[in-house]
Design brief:
- The chain is α+β, with helices and mostly antiparallel strands.
- β18 (253-257) and β19 (262-266) form a beta hairpin.
- α23 (1354-1416) runs antiparallel to α24 (1420-1465).
- Helix content is 46%, strand content 16%.
């Protein structure tokens, strides 16, 4: 249309919901419809560029390379890369996308572009847009990627944000081959809490299965497989939604979330922690409304923008433990102090540690984070939640000391005396949350024998030192905890060591003794193998010293200015106030006199830091709001005074002028508004109540339809007349056609199986193998047993006659189909049991209704009798309860409503009309009725006189008996009165007789009612017993069903897990095959690169060796000078970017760096090749030839460097692929072992059946817990009945033997008692003889008696002779007695010998019985007491023997003494 001209766009206005990108420092660009608008922020001038394709899809720009990329919106779209400000098309990139591109990203350090295409393949592709070549691509890279961003420091790192995912893609390079490797970072939950990942369970087969079978993961329980099974728990919990991300110079990511959270992600760890939590109490309110929808990092801070249309600059505070902060703990408080002496070690803030008081405290040094300042704490001194982000971990045992390493924790367990290593979960990453993560020790080695132990980690984190109460210092490497170097620093007798610390270089350790008051410095001597660790520690120390060099100079000066004593020093916390009391100086400042706790009450202490902060906060609040409070108080008081005065004045006014109390309302309009609002609320509440009633009515209909109308047998109960017993029936629904068809199918299958089994048993030569036939063939002599009896094992259904003959044997339910059929048959048994019981229940219910009708009839008759007898007795009237008539619950009676019914005006009018009509009917009924009146006058209101009317009859007394005295009666009147008395007497006798008949009839009816109702209660009790049996059978069958269902669920879970593992192994094998193929290609490439590198090195050496040959025509000394110039290389000054407003330094790729280095070298060589540098006397042609040779040498050296770097890169790439192959092999082997173990467990689980066995009462000898009243069968053992019966028989036999032995022992003890009595009698006789002997010995004659005796005559001589005879008799009598005693002693000795022999035999018997007692273990306590008694009896018997011997000896001695005394003291007559 050249005749008309062309069209061009003048301007375009509008802004889509896409980001704005700066293409240079003053120009921003954004999309506007089908155009791209460039806005100069200084001049506000706009430039419009029309889309080079069809529409605009994704859009991005790079301010460093000043290019922009845009994708079009059509099928098979292209990406257009344009330069700025020329706005010329550089390249059109045609990728593999089918629908569209959702995100684009340009790298700032190279010509690289990353794009993401959505459906159907979800592919991430990295381009070199200068060459329009695809570097690498990765299909199935995740769904819903909304944002891509390159790492400004490294183009080989890309961050991809999804709707719920955060992924970092690393580009690994091998020469020209590139691949994308994925690393996914797990975001916290939507509430900011940590999500604990589920670890894969172990399926290593052990010797015994658990009661509930093998434990399966949640994915297998849910029935998932394939990719859906991976991370099942993580996907179930909602996570934070990322919106924006930006890189930090430390290769970390700031991530802004839709929920208002700001995260810091470390892709290398990988870990994610929360920097800003909007739900925290101390969260910044300015950031709560806006959120983090866009992020940009600058040297000033982190710029964020959100929904509030405000731009915020944030400074992210962290911790630097490299000398800026001191951390200490007291009880459960953790305090942060400024470690600088210039700040007088000021307290920054505190936080409260969860749980118990802090036992150990450890910190980890992280560089690159600024120190925490006073702004981190609130007015009370408590640190904000963003400053301290707690993650709680729970260890299996109590820990005494711990240190924090990089991703791991080392701790001492005092209970086990071990040193343990714990791995910190990667997903934790410091993410706070209420969830407690369970930790298990990854490694456990022997610790100190005497604890508690203390740990310390070297500054570079590679060495771990420990000390204990044994005084030993042990040093280990964190890589090998089982090996350590040891030295004794302190004595264990003095308490060992109580403190430990590393020096900054990690080469020196200082330990403090606990009781010896000493410090010991230990230096580490490293071996050759440990020189690398020592060098690493030294390097770490030097780098830290360089960072703190300036700080140390200032702080050392401030520290030196602090003098000891009161001036310039800090008073300790809690020290006494000056002037309160004179306290003598002590040598140790850490010790406090015990008198300070109980001494002078006038002694006061300075407030602690916490108390000071609290007091300051209270004073600030009081000063801040004091004026406002006083103003409010005065205003309220003034209002009260004014109102009171007006009300008092109103009371004094006349009634006509006096106002009511409510009229003193100051705001009448407000009062009316409140009334209107109240009416509106009443209407709203009424409407809500009506809607709620409607919803309840609808719910009632649903419940009635599903729980009442659908029931074929409705649930009812029967209560006893005189007992609290209540029996309920079984509510049942109609069995569906499918259930009946399934039952018929299963019974048909079982009938066929039974017929097949019988047929196989009839064939003699055919022996069934396996299955239930094989087991049945081995039972009994006839080759089989009753299958029905075996099937009923575990249930009492056969006793109720409700069994099913087609039930399987419990020991043959190995197949899932058999278990399903068994469940169907068991459900049929349950249904039969319920039907049978419901039939009996209906019969008993009808019986109760009949009994109640009989009782009501008899009650009516008894009521008539009580009316005739004029008795007032309450009759018992049985009624049906709510449980017996459940249909009552479906209707509501008026008597059940306790509140007054609300009636509308129309309903009130209808109620009034009903009342008027009822009153009219009552008045009409009370009108005059001549028939009823005449019947009442003539016959007392009855047509026929009944027998019961006898009690109402009366004999009318004659009138004269009342009006006349008896003396005035006539003979006729006396005769009439006598007839009256006779009739009255006869009537009275007849009435008494009838009353007795009625009373007897009433008692009979009461007894009949009681007997019939008690008989019904007995029937109900039997029905209750039947209900218990039915319940037992139902529970037994349901327990069988539950076990079968659970076993099928476990088998299904095992199959799911097996499919999942098989699919995982197939994926890993496919990955391994791909890795092997790639490894082969990379190996070939490495070999080719190594050959090329060797060739370049050889060529470079040839140039060096052939230098003198090329200058053979030049003199030797000149050639030597030229060779020195040939080796000389100029210094290349690398240009650095000194821009202060860019937080990132440029990092170029390998190829770009090599090409730039070669260009700078050649440029510097041109200066050296200038003619001015020609040596004196050298021809120009030779100089030119020399320059060409030297330039070739320089280019060759550069090629060697490039080839060396390329070879190293390819070798590193090859090593990674080799490691991946080994990892894949290990994973495949692990999966194969897990699959094999799972299959073995599956077979064992199918064979190890859970069988239900019924045991009779009395055959269960298991202790019952008094708390649970349920026996615990976990440690029970089943024995055959004969074993228990044999044991009981042995116990009875041994018990009888024991009783016989006890009787023998009793008789023997009786004999011992008799002997003791005999011995006591002999002792008393011996004492009597001793007394007589002493009397004889003490007999003396005086001189007078002797003279008198000398003067006696013959008569006296005769008397002497008689005395001699008497004396001879006296001599003979003691000897006879002594002889008798000796004979008795001999008899006793013989008896004692017999007893000794019997005692030995009894000892043997006792020993035998003690062995029997030990074997039976019956009546242990009684046996022990009896053994003690027997032992005491034996000891007593031995004592008696010894006493008898002693007494025999004493008797012999007494005989001798008696003879001597008799000879000395016997009187002689001269």
């Amino acid at each position: 249309m050249d005749e008309i001209g062309s069209l061009e766009v003048r301007w375009a206005q509008g802004f889509a919901k896409q980001r704005v990108v700066f293409i240079d420092t003053i120009t921003a660009c954004y999309t506007c419809g089908n155009h791209i608008v460039f806005l100069n922020i200084d001049s506000k001038k706009r430039t419009v560029l029309q889309s080079p394709g069809k529409g605009i899809g994704a859009f991005t720009a790079s301010g460093t390379s000043r290019v922009l990329a845009v994708s079009e919106q059509r099928l098979n779209p292209s990406i257009f890369v344009l330069s700025y400000p020329e706005l010329k098309l550089k390249h059109e990139l045609k990728g593999t996308a089918t629908l569209d591109y959702t995100s684009l990203a340009l790298s700032d350090v190279g010509p690289y572009l990353c794009c993401y295409s959505s459906l159907p393949d979800h592919t991430i592709t990295v381009w070199n847009w200068e060459n329009a070549e695809i570097i690498c691509t990765q299909p199935q890279a995740g769904k819903d990627v909304i944002y891509l961003v390159f790492n400004p420091m490294n183009w080989q790192q890309i961050c991809a944000l999804g709707s719920k995912t955060l992924t970092v893609w690393n580009i690994e390079k091998s020469d020209t081959h590139h691949i994308l490797m994925k690393r996914e970072l797990h975001l916290p939950a939507a509430d900011g809490s940590l999500i604990e990942r589920e670890g894969p369970p172990s399926h290593i087969v052990n010797g015994r299965l658990t009661y509930w079978g093998p434990q399966m993961p949640a994915s297998a329980i849910a029935g998932l497989k394939g990719v859906r099974a991976d991370g099942f728990l993580e996907r179930r919990t909602p996570r934070l939604t990322p919106l924006a991300a930006c890189w930090t110079p430390a290769a970390e990511l700031y991530v802004g979330c839709q929920e208002g959270y700001l995260l810091l992600a470390n892709p290398d760890a990988p870990s994610v922690r929360i920097l800003y939590n909007p739900t925290a109490p101390d969260a910044n309110p300015e950031l709560k409304d806006g959120g983090f929808q866009s992020l940009a990092l600058h040297s000033d801070g982190l710029y964020v923008a959100g929904k509030d249309r405000l731009l915020h600059c944030l400074r992210v505070n962290g911790f630097d433990e490299g000398g800026n902060i001191l951390v200490c703990a007291s009880d459960s408080h953790i305090f942060l102090l400024d470690a600088k002496p210039s700040k007088t070690f000021a307290v920054i803030g505190y936080t409260v540690a969860p749980g118990r008081p802090v036992l150990s405290l450890s910190t980890q040094h992280k560089r690159g984070l600024s120190g925490a300042g006073p702004s981190c704490a609130d007015a009370h001194g408590r640190l904000s939640a963003n400053t301290f982000q707690a993650s709680t971990y729970e260890a299996p045992r109590a820990l005494q000391s711990c240190v924090l390493g990089v991703g791991e924790i080392f701790a001492c367990c005092e209970e086990l005396k071990t040193l343990q290593r714990f791995k910190v979960p990667q997903d934790a990453g410091g993410v706070p949350g209420p969830t407690v993560c369970q930790l298990g020790p990854e490694e456990e080695v022997e610790g100190h024998p005497l604890g508690p132990s203390l740990l310390a980690l070297s500054p570079h984190g590679s060495w771990l030192a420990s000390v204990g109460r044994d005084g030993l210092l042990r040093l280990r490497t964190t890589a090998a905890l089982d090996r350590y170097a040891e030295i004794e620093c302190h004595s264990c007798r003095l308490g060992g060591a109580g403190g430990l610390s590393f020096s900054a270089d990690g080469q020196t350790l200082v330990t403090a003794g606990l009781g010896d008051g000493s410090l010991v410095c230990t230096r580490l001597r490293t071996e050759t193998s440990g020189s690398s660790e020592a060098g690493e520690a030294t390097y770490y120390c030097q780098s830290a010293a360089r960072q703190l060099e300036n700080v140390l100079k200032v702080e050392n000066a401030a520290l030196g200015a602090m003098t000891e004593g009161p001036q310039g020093s800090l008073p300790p916390l809690g020290s006494p106030r000056p002037g309160t009391e004179e306290v003598s100086e002590v040598s140790d400042a850490t010790e406090m006199s015990p008198e300070l706790d109980e001494g002078d009450p006038n002694l006061t202490f300075d407030p602690t830091w916490l108390e000071t902060r609290e007091e300051a906060v209270l004073e600030a609040e009081q000063q801040r709001y004091s004026e406002k409070k006083e103003e409010i108080r005065k205003g309220i008081k003034q209002l009260l005074d004014t109102s009171g005065e007006r009300m008092r004045a109103n009371e004094e006014l006349p009634d006509i002028w006096r106002l009511d109390g409510h009229e003193f309302n100051l705001d009448v309009g407000e009062q009316r508004r409140l009334e209107v609002d109240g009416e509106r609320e009443v209407a709203t509440v009424r409407e809500e109540i009506e809607m709620g009633n409607l919803a309840k009515s609808y719910l009632r209909e649903l419940l009635k339809r599903d729980c009442w109308d659908s029931m074929k047998v409705k649930g009812k109960a029967i209560k006893g007349f005189h007992s609290v017993l209540e029996v309920k029936n079984y509510p049942m629904k109609e069995r569906t056609e499918k259930e009946l068809d399934d039952l018929l199918r299963v019974e048909s299958i079982r009938a066929i199986e039974t017929a097949n089994r019988i047929t196989q048993q009839d064939v003699p030569h055919r022996r069934p193998s396996g299955g239930e036939e094989g087991e049945e063939g081995e039972e009994g002599e006839g080759g089989g047993y009753d299958v029905q009896a075996a099937a009923l094992t575990g249930s009492f259904a056969g006793q109720l006659g409700c069994s099913n003959p087609h039930l399987y044997d419990q020991f043959n339910l190995h197949v899932t189909e058999q278990k399903i059929n068994q469940i169907t048959l068991l459900q049929d048994v349950i249904c039969k049991v319920k039907k049978a019981f419901n039939g009996e229940f209906d019969g008993v219910r009808k019986q109760k209704e009949q009994e109640m009708s009989r009782v009501r009839e008899k009650n009516r008759r008894m009521a008539e009798i009580m009316g005739d007898l004029e008795a007032n007795q309450e009759l018992w009237e049985p009624t049906l309860g709510d449980s017996e008539q459940p249909e009552r619950a479906l209707t509501v009676e008026d008597s059940e409503i306790t509140v007054e019914k609300y009636l509308t005006p129309q309903q009130k009018k209808i109620e009034e009309e009903k009342k008027k009509l009822e009153e009219q009917m009552l008045l009409a009924a009370k009108g005059d009725n001549s028939r009823d009146r005449g019947l009442g006058d003539m016959m007392g209101g009855a047509i026929q006189v009944k027998k019961e009317d006898i009690l109402k009859k009366e004999v009318i007394q004659p009138e004269f008996a009342v009006s006349k005295p008896e003396l005035q009666w006539s003979d006729e009147e006396k005769k009439i009165y006598k007839d009256y008395e006779k009739k009255a007497k006869d009537l009275s006798e007849e009435q008494d007789k009838y009353k007795k008949t009625l009373e007897s009839e009433m008692k009979k009816m009461q007894a009949s009612i009681l007997e019939s109702t008690q008989g019904f209660d007995e029937v109900l009790a039997k029905l209750f017993e039947r209900k218990l049996k039915s319940e037992t059978v139902i529970y037994q069958e349901e327990l069988k069903i539950a076990h079968l269902v659970y076993s099928m669920l476990i088998e299904e879970e095992i199959r799911n897990r097996e499919r999942e593992l098989v699919l995982s192994m197939e994926r890993r094998r496919a990955d391994k095959n791909a890795i092997v193929e790639e490894l082969r290609n990379v190996s070939e490439g490495v070999e080719l690169c190594r050959k090329a590198y060797d060739n370049v090195v050889a060529e470079d050496r040839l140039l060096d060796k052939g230098f003198r040959k090329q200058f053979f025509d030049v003199q030797a000394h000149v050639v030597d000078h030229l060779y020195k110039l040939f080796k000389h290389r100029p210094r290349v000054q690398r240009m650095r970017d000194q821009a202060d407003n860019k937080p990132f330094n440029k990092r170029f790729s390998l190829g770009g760096a090599a090409s730039d280095g070669l260009g700078q070298m050649l440029q510097a060589m041109e200066e050296l090749d200038s003619p001015e540098n020609t040596p004196a006397g050298l021809e120009p042609t030779v100089w030119e030839r020399f320059c060409l040779v030297r330039r070739a040498k320089v280019e060759g050296e550069q090629q060697v460097k490039v080839k060396a770097l390329t070879l190293a890169e390819m070798q590193a790439f090859l090593q990674k692929r080799t490691d991946e192959e080994e990892t894949a092999k290990h994973e495949i082997k692990t999966l194969m072992d897990e699959i094999n173990g799972l299959r073995e467990q599956k077979v064992r689980f199918q064979l190890d059946l859970l069988v239900q066995v019924l045991l009779r009462q009395g055959q269960v000898e298991v202790e019952v817990s008094p708390a649970l009243c349920i026996p615990d069968h976990r440690d029970s053992v089943m024995h055959h009945r004969s074993v228990v019966e044999d044991l009981s028989a042995n116990i009875k036999t041994l018990g009888g033997q024991k009783i016989a032995t006890m009787v023998e022992c009793k008789d023997f003890r009786k004999g011992i008692i008799q002997l003791e009595w005999e011995q006591r009698r002999i002792q008393m006789q011996t004492e009597h003889y001793d007394m007589q002997t002493r009397d004889i010995q003490k007999l003396h004659l005086s001189k007078e008696q002797q003279e008198y005796l000398n003067q006696m005559d013959l008569e006296m001589v005769d008397q002497g002779s008689s005395l001699e005879k008497h004396t001879a008799f006296d001599d003979k009598s003691p000897q006879e007695k002594i002889r008798q005693v000796s004979m008795r002693a001999a008899i006793k000795a013989e008896q004692i010998a017999v007893l000794d022999q019997e005692l030995a035999e009894m000892e043997v018997a006792v020993s035998e019985r003690s062995h029997i007692y030990d074997s039976t273990a019956v009546e242990a306590d009684q046996g022990v007491e009896r053994e003690a008694e027997l032992y005491q009896e034996i000891v007593q018997l031995k004592n008696l023997k010894h006493l008898a011997r002693t007494q025999a000896q004493e008797l012999a001695l007494l005989r001798e003494q008696l003879e001597v005394s008799r000879m000395k003291n016997f009187p002689t007559l001269n």
